[in-house]
Amino acid sequence: MLQSPLSLWKEILVKGPGIGILSISKNGDLALSMASFLSGISATAWINANMVAQLHYKDLIILSITPIVENVTFSPSGIRDIQAALPDPETEGNRGSVIPIELSSYRFLFAASEDDRNWNSCLFAQQASARLKHHGKENFKVVMYPRAGHFLEVPYMPHCPSGFHPVVGQVVVFGGEAKAHHQEFFRKHLDGNNIAQKATL
Length: 201
Hints:
Domain BAAT/Acyl-CoA thioester hydrolase C-terminal: 14-182
Low-confidence stretches: 1-9, 194-199
Strand order of the largest sheet: 1-2-3-8-9
Number of strands: 11
GO molecular function: fatty acyl-CoA hydrolase activity
CATH architecture: 3-Layer(aba) Sandwich
Order of helices and strands: EEHEEEEEEHEEEH
Protein name: BAAT/Acyl-CoA thioester hydrolase C-terminal domain-containing protein
CATH class: Alpha Beta
GO biological process, one term: acyl-CoA metabolic process
Shape: globular
Oligomer: single chain
CATH superfamily: Alpha/Beta hydrolase fold, catalytic domain
CATH topology: Rossmann fold
Distance between the termini: 26 Å
Organism: Hucho hucho (huchen)
Structural class: alpha/beta
Number of domains: 1
Radius of gyration: 17 Å
Largest sheet: 5 strands, mixed
Number of helices: 3
């Protein structure tokens, strides 16, 4: 029931002239904001995040979005399920909260877990890619992970199906099955037989 340390995980990667951002969960809005407004951000990996933020940048104001408390349910084990609490940012009245990622010309990777119970990451990933496509951008890739929960844990990290959520102030369901979080990719590609293949994430 411990909170996964990845809940606050954000990493800045620097190689040559470019800067990359690897973000998960709440840090995704910060990563998208940096990619949209700052120069030199060459690539942004967004993992199970959203595309809304309360942000003031120069003359731009992005409004916050209010969770719908009535949409909080309970899992069969009695733990809070908050997946539907964050409203759809593309609905009327919420569009002012969306980060204008179309301002960026650099690369985005949107990775979403299909059993994310923290919020609807797949919907947000699809909306982010649709927004870029609508503005004539092709600088993105979307990857979905079946049966995986909110935290796509790094290798050898235990699966975190639930934990304390600092914003909610309660233990919530993060979702996913342990097997879906096993690192089959590394078992498959680190045996020396498939060195030429590239990782998605």
